[in-house]
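Let's practice the habit of predicting before peeking. Look at the sequence and jot down your guess about where helices and strands might fall. Then scroll down.
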Amino acid sequence: MNGTAPALWAPLAAGSARFRGPFTRWPRLADAALAFAVFLVTTFVLDGPGDELIVRPVQDVPIGAAIVSAVAGAALYWRRRAPMAVVAVAVLSWAATFGSGYRDMGGVVAILALYAAGRYCADVAQGLAGVAAAVAVVAVDALDIHDSWVTEASFGAAVMFVAWYVGRRFRLREERAEELRREQAAEARRILVEERARIARELHDVVAHRVSLMTVQAGAAKAVATRDPDAALRSMGAVEEAGRQALAELRHLLGVLRPEADHGVLGPQPGLADLPALADQIREAGVGVSLDLDRRLPRDLPARVDLFAYRIVQEALTNVLKHAGPGAHADVRLRYEGDRVLVEVVDDGEGSGATFQKSGHGVVGMRERALLLGGTLDAGPRKGGGFAVVACLPVEGGPTREAP
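Done guessing? Here is the structure:
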């Protein structure tokens, strides 16, 4: 019996979790319907003798009562966006009905408004202030009941507080559910990152093994090339096959490490040859760019140097576009000094200095690229205005520190 009970209740629990009432599915339409229904009830329904409810004909409704009911009912339409303002309107409308047969209906509007205050107002103090105002109206309204004033006032005050408290509990429950969803999403992301890192380590070992095998096979082919060409060809064939496998596994490794937003975006990486096109894009966006490229820059730079130099220029120009202000101009200069590439991006913008330093990841990312090549990067405001980025990238080299 105990084992089957959860299974029997599970579909009902799942159905209740999926159920969404009209106030959740169509909130604005539901609020409009609620406001109209409250207007009808408070306008045409009265307290009769012996606590009997009486429906009043249209021609017997006083103009003042109709106006007060219309204002109080219409206010409920804004109960989500301005709950405390709705409470104020409800309490004042209720107070305006003193001495008439409509005063109990005013209490209904106040109860709905206090519930909305608890549900949609984050400030507890404001909600309790609304409860206190409603309780004051309850106490004044009960003054004509001399023999049971304390009982009536206490009961009314309890109803007002409970209405606000119920709304507050719903709000807290939703906040806890949202926090739980965020924690679960964060945990799922953490597990995903850890799993990707584990897979990346495994693929790294596989790729390293393939490359080591290629090196050994290439060395064997070189050793026997002169005396046994057939063996050399077989070794080179093994090198080719291992290279293809290593390339496929490396592509898979990069797919694992690539952010989800970048999946499916494949293509050749840019390089220094693409700088003129980049400069044209920046010019079209409103920033003048001048390029000064050293003719001695070799066409066969290592791919990592070619890519990182381009990315540094791209990031620097992007930040000029974001922070230097309209009409700014940037000078891009690249120099080749035998064993290193010097990259310099200087602008004359007014807003790029302090703003660029505080902008977050721009300088950090550029400096990280330079460090991965064993180089350096300096970035900061210029004395005469504007901002300067200067990078020194060794053509041959490795990281200046171990990656974290």
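How did you do? The first helix runs from residue 4 to 18.
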